[in-house]
Amino acid sequence: MSAAIEIAGVSKIYDGGVRAVDAVAMEIRQGEFFSLLGPSGCGKTTTLRMIAGFDTPSIGAIRVDGADITHVPAHKRDMAMVFQNYALFPHRTVAENVAFGLRMRGLEKQAIARKVKAALAMVELSGLEDRYPGQLSGGQQQRVALARAIVIEPRVLLCDEPLGALDKKLRQQMQFELKQLQKSLGLTLVFVTHDQEEALAMSDRIAVMNGGRVEQIGTPVEIYDRPETRFVADFIGDTNIFRGERVTSATVPSLAVGNGLTLTLPSSAPIGTGVLSVALRPEKIGLSPAGDAGRATAEACARGVIESTNFLGGAVLYRIALESGHHILAQQPNAGAVRLFAPGNTVMLDWKPADLVVLKD
Fold it and tell me: How far apart, in Å, do the first and last CA atoms of the chain sit?
């Protein structure tokens, strides 16, 4: 049975008053794939280590299914951890590595052999029991580390950047396999990563961290489509961020961002005056040749000149200089007949005001 985890106002303060984690509060649901996402030094690994019991919170509490485990030793928490560097014993075979935790628990040899065989089958390593880690590929070593973690049937599986050392194609394959394995076993999995695409692809929910604090918690769709802060909007994928003064005299809510550029705000924008920041994803912007009458009458539009193009395979990303002097990114899908604009082309851009996301300062 997997477990629910509550992190209640947890801080980790080191000598000198450095707060690696600052008043973090979150609830991780039973059987959930939950990711801690953020740049290096944001506090995500420290948070994971406190859940694991390797570090003790300076302030706050950690609970599992309502029971306070803040000061429970790591080996008594019924959790398993997979590390980025695999942490395999080089002088022990695959089977011996996987069996290590079971031997520490005092299981009989027959039970150990049975469980090791089942765990290796789950990660598709049957037949490699007698090999040593140095005889395996990086992906195979990662599977051994995963088998060693799941063989003890933990209530919680903790993963600290476990796929970071793999090449892109193998990493994508392992993302799929880890997600499938987590769901089939019903594990509560807490996953640390700095890779936005990885977190979006694998997670049920994501906590985006910055400077030791949680900026936002939500599903991948919520985090991407409705970022709450400038940091989240900027960190998760490409985005355009505009900042300006709200126009109170307009019949519809709008934002004056300078040099004659005014953006119509979504109807959900807060009422009031003052400075406001909004985000607009590049793929929400339509492009057409200059002079396209249909585009020119769109609810929100602008004219600009293509400065550069970046062919991404499945899409084309354009950097465009608007007549106002602002620069904007627009992305168009490559559906086989994508219109490829060239640097120097004048284009019309259009978008829906509803696609603008108002950010918290």
Answer: 41
